[in-house]
Specification:
mainly alpha; 5 helices
């Protein structure tokens, strides 16, 4: 069965997002390393090693998510069922995190929230599910 245009668009968006996440991850890891080596003056009692370590760990997580996005993108291009499920989970988490972030006073990213919602809706359409070998009423 042919890959729908929407799936191609989602795969391209995931690929682009993954590339930017990898770049951001390396940047944040670099900032963490810069902090640990004493490149940033800290307040009295603050630990540059601890703060830099947390920053580097965050950068590693961002890097890992970027790699996951690229792997999911490749799977979406190849119309793999695991990529459909993985993308659905990632976008569901994006929605959850956006809502939690907004409710805790962090503001709301309308574009990201709407885009994730559209992707989830699209992936759950019966004709798209069937392309990925996911059919049947009700469950995922």
């Amino acid at each position: 069965m042919n890959r729908p245009v929407g799936v191609t668009v989602i795969a391209i968006l995931q690929l682009i997002g993954g590339i930017f996440s990898i770049l951001a991850g390396f940047f944040v890891i670099g900032v963490g390393r810069y902090i640990v080596t004493g490149g940033v003056p800290m307040d009295e009692g603050a630990s540059p090693t601890a703060f830099g370590g947390v920053t580097a760990a965050l950068g590693s997580l961002i890097l890992l998510l970027g790699v996951l996005s690229i792997v999911l993108s490749i799977g979406m291009f190849q119309v793999k069922g695991w990529a459909w499920l993985g993308t659905l989970i990632v976008q569901g988490l994006n929605i959850l995190f956006a809502v939690v972030f907004a409710l805790t006073g962090g503001g709301i990213n309308f574009v990201g929230l709407i885009l994730a919602g559209i992707i989830v809706y699209y992936l759950l359409r019966p004709e798209v599910k069937s392309v990925f070998g996911r059919s049947g009423e009700g469950g995922v």
